[in-house]
Specification:
There is one protein chain. By secondary structure, the chain is of the alpha/beta class. It has two domains: 5-151, no CATH class; 159-342, no CATH class. It has helices at residues 27-31, 54-65, 107-119, 138-151, 159-164, 173-187, 211-218, 227-230, 236-255, 271-292, 297-304, 322-340; strands at 5-9, 11-15, 18-26, 34-35, 74-78, 86-88, 91-95, 101-105, 127-134, 197-198, 209-210. Strand 6 and strand 7 (91-95) form a beta hairpin. The radius of gyration is 27 Å and the shape is elongated.
């Protein structure tokens, strides 16, 4: 039986001790070569993949059948020993042999493509970008896998709207943006809420403020006609900095009395406290900082002006239901904000 051989332009690159070849290949040819080697199940070099998630594959299949494709590279490891790809003068010859190339990165996308191809064979003639290594050891394959899945953080989903300016027609934009801000609050080591956002599925006791609270308190204000946009704060970076600086100012007053990190005393480590703090920011402080053209921590500190020895505590929210707790938080911040305003005698008319 004759073996089909693909000959195409290729880029040879060396990363440390590893040599890889990158080229564009038809989907049907890649599907004719790849396979998945699962760590702990398949006893062969390069077996680093996790067990496939069927739900994720179904979503990818749907995505492809809707006419979408992938622009990021797929990483394969050639393991067939009898026949091997040959590279010469910027061209590579690759024999199309079943089960000849392990999927190092992109296993779910490839299986999703495979499932979609069964329903629409025209998908097979589309092309994807493939980076091919030859006979990697398990150690080298694991190093690539770990680098991709831990060291390289994905771009925030809502950043696409800043790059391309397409937000008005996407109802999910403000939700995506609020999620991205929540991630930064939780993952940024300088954030007052570092490691304290409670994500769905986290073990009991891990996290203090629910992700749904962060998203719910912010999403309507992040819409294309929301408060942030009305103050010309439309990109992710500026919105994140405003929120981080605001909470950094709030933290200043509570750290001064060694309360901020005390989760039994800090009222802002509750859902009601976070929600109330955002309500005060939106209602009172954004416009003041916008008028001053400055959203620095010092500006927020001056506007908050919280009294030493008279801070709101978590115990002040005890035995109150959610809305009443939020009102107590807002009233506390509002009262001190009004004290920071000039007296009537200081106004000019």
């Amino acid at each position: 039986m004759s073996i089909k051989v693909i000959k195409t332009k290729s880029l040879k690159t060396k990363f440390g001790t590893l040599t890889v070849f990158t080229q564009s290949l038809k989907i049907k040819d890649v599907l004719g070569m790849f396979y998945v080697a699962v760590r702990g199940r398949d006893e062969e070099e390069g077996a680093v993949q996790r067990v496939l998630n069927r739900q994720r594959i179904a979503l990818i299949k749907k995505y492809i059948l809707e006419g979408n494709n992938f622009y990021s590279t797929f990483i394969l490891n050639w393991t067939e020993t009898t026949f091997k790809p040959e590279f010469e003068k910027n061209e590579i010859s690759i024999p199309v042999i079943p089960f000849s190339a392990q999927a190092i990165d992109g296993q779910h996308r490839l299986v999703g493509l495979q499932e979609a191809y069964k329903e629409d064979d025209s998908i097979g003639d589309k092309e994807i970008l493939v980076t091919l290594s030859l006979n990697l050891s398990t150690k080298d394959a694991a190093r690539i896998f770990v680098n991709i899945n831990s060291e390289q953080k994905p771009v925030p989903k809502s950043l696409i709207y800043d790059l391309f300016g397409e937000i008005e027609n996407d109802t999910n934009h403000s939700i995506n943006r609020a999620n991205d801000i929540a991630d930064d609050l939780n993952d940024n080591i300088d954030s007052p809420y570092y490691g304290t956002i409670k994500y769905p599925g986290k073990p009991k006791g891990v996290g203090l403020v629910d992700l749904s609270t962060v998203v719910g308190s912010l999403k309507k204000h992040l819409e294309s006609d929301g408060v942030f946009a009305s103050h010309k704060l439309t990109n992710l970076q500026n919105q994140k900095v405003v929120i981080l600086n605001y909470f950094a100012a709030l933290r200043f007053y509570y750290e001064r009395e060694d309360i901020w990190i005390n989760k039994t005393k800090n009222p802002f480590f509750t859902n009601a406290g976070f929600y109330g703090a955002i309500e005060h920011l939106i209602k009172n402080l954004l416009i003041k900082c916008a008028e001053k053209k400055s959203f620095k921590v010092e500006d927020f500190k001056a506007l908050l002006d919280l009294p030493k020895g008279e801070l709101l505590l978590k115990s002040d929210l005890k035995n109150l239901e959610g809305k009443s707790q939020r009102k107590v938080v807002v009233d506390f911040l509002q009262e001190n904000y009004l004290k920071s305003l000039p007296s009537q005698d200081e106004y000019e008319f």
